[in-house]
């Protein structure tokens, strides 16, 4: 797999480039994606909870004691004797639970700015867990007070944490912050993503610890997807990309291993589709998933309940359709068809396509582009589903005739989406001789006339 991945990083197929454009127009799954991770709820309920790993152990004096059954990361008493730690914990608790005024916000930012890397003291074995708690508190405080850490602090802190993160809860605290900080437009995005990759390699290798909760797996997938996108945009080394994709594959398997073959909840289903789409874009046009891993992913993408579809908006359904098409394409290195799997998925995709077909009139240009990318990659889906894509093309043509949507797209700075749509429709037109290819022609003509028209109107 490594050789295939490395060879694909230097290029990006048309479908992968178009999908990358789609993904960049969407807001990434946010830090508060899950209600239970909203800032205030996260820092009240989850930071004071029973420890699952409480057990008897011997102290340095040889006495037996029970480890503290509760984790009180935001307790001032936990950091007694350290003025900077106490100040940050107090500012955190005050802003979180008492008053969200500009004064308490500024006090929190000042407390964050006073913390230095030396204040964590990871080298003290007796206080290592307290130091880890404080590191989690500090990182989450940088998000709460909108005061990102410096590059030097982040690199040093993640390096230290790679040696002391052992339980899932600490990992969840750190990963949730990285989900918030890893934005492609951030000036320190590449430095943070590189430091994060190094921390993962040193701490986890390519495996997901069995102690990880499902929340931990979900957060790992979210943060790895963001790091992958950032490093790819910045032309990172293929070694880092190969590593992240290998870890992502194992995390996908963990996510898809639900007891009793239960379907994924809505949130986890969206995380899965997001990871598949980013993986396809990052590798330049191939998922590079081993057969057992791919089978487990395909199984969880199945939809049999109308209830599931009804809670998804059109953009989420379009991405789910695209991800399903990508997952059904057999690895190019094997070149062997998987008729049983494909037949199964052609059947299970029917409810999704029927659902989308009823919502054609509310598809945006980006929604349509996402669907067309899936069809351009998966010829079986193109052959099976005719009515829906034809209706989608007709809808876009009507919107263009009435409202010049392509002109407005160019005027509003959507040149990347315009180029991706043109490229994808051209691929659909050239890769088959069917009614879909015929229906694409008028839309391509409309697209080709919009560039000079938009240029003339702007001059």
UniProtKB/TrEMBL annotation:
This is Uncharacterized protein. It comes from Trypanosoma brucei gambiense (strain MHOM/CI/86/DAL972). The lineage of its organism: Eukaryota, Discoba, Euglenozoa, Kinetoplastea, Metakinetoplastina.
């Amino acid at each position: 797999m490594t050789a295939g991945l490395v060879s694909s990083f230097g290029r990006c197929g048309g479908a992968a480039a178009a999908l990358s454009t789609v993904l960049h127009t969407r807001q990434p799954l946010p830090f508060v994606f899950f209600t239970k991770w909203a800032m205030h709820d996260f820092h009240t309920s989850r930071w004071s909870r029973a420890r699952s790993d409480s057990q008897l152990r011997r102290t340095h004096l040889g006495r037996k004691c029970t480890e503290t059954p509760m984790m009180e990361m935001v307790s001032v008493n936990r950091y007694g004797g350290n003025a900077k730690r106490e100040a940050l914990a107090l500012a955190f608790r005050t802003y979180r639970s008492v008053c969200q005024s500009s004064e308490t916000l500024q006090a929190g930012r000042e407390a964050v700015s006073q913390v230095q890397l030396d204040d964590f003291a990871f080298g003290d074995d007796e206080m290592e867990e307290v130091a880890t708690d404080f590191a989690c508190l500090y990182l989450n405080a940088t998000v709460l007070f909108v005061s990102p850490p410096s590059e030097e602090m982040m690199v040093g802190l993640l390096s230290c944490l790679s040696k002391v993160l052992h339980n899932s809860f600490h990992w969840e605290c750190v990963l949730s912050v990285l989900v918030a900080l890893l934005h492609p437009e951030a000036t320190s995005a590449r430095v943070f993503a590189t430091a994060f990759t190094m921390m993962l390699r040193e701490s986890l290798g390519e495996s997901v610890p069995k102690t990880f909760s499902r929340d931990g797996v979900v957060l790992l997938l979210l943060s790895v997807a963001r790091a992958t996108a950032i490093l790819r945009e910045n032309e990172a080394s293929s070694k880092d990309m190969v590593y992240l994709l290998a870890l992502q594959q194992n995390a996908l398997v963990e996510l898809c291993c639900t007891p009793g073959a239960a379907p994924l909840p809505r949130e986890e289903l969206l995380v899965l589709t997001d990871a598949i789409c980013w993986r396809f874009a990052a590798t330049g046009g191939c998922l590079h998933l081993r057969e057992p891993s791919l089978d487990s992913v395909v199984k969880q993408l199945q939809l049999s309940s109308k209830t599931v579809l009804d809670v998804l908006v059109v953009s989420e359904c379009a991405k789910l359709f695209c991800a399903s098409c990508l997952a059904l394409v057999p690895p190019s290195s094997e070149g062997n068809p998987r008729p049983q799997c494909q037949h199964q998925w052609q059947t299970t995709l029917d409810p999704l396509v029927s659902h989308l077909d009823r919502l054609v009139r509310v598809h945006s240009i980006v929604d349509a582009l996402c669907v067309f990318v899936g069809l351009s990659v998966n010829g079986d889906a193109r052959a099976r589903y005719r009515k829906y894509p034809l209706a989608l093309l007709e809808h876009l043509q009507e919107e263009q005739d009435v409202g010049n949507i392509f002109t407005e797209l160019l005027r509003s700075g959507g040149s990347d989406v315009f180029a991706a749509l043109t490229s994808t429709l051209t691929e659909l037109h050239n890769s088959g001789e069917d009614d879909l290819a015929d229906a694409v022609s008028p839309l391509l003509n409309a697209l080709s006339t919009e560039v000079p028209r938009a240029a003339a109107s702007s001059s």
